[in-house]
Task: inverse folding
């Protein structure tokens, strides 16, 4: 969408997934319940930061699958 609508090319993204506890209250569960805090940063081909997304998920309800592929 960013490329087609705005002519912006996303060059790089990094996502960090970590266990957290203090963010549990955001989901309305007991304080100290295990949750995942996920932060993603996207950068344009001009090296400018496009955006930062922070999400909180209940740790016992999610599975992450990561595909690793070698590029030439």
Result:
């Amino acid at each position: 969408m960013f490329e087609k609508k705005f002519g912006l090319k996303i060059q790089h993204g990094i996502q960090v997934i970590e266990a957290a506890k203090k963010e549990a209250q955001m989901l309305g569960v007991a304080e100290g319940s295990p949750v995942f805090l996920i932060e993603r940063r996207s950068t344009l081909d001009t090296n400018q930061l496009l955006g930062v997304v922070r999400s909180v998920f209940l740790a016992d309800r999610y599975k992450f699958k990561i595909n690793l592929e070698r590029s030439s």
Q: What stands out?
A: The radius of gyration is 16 Å.
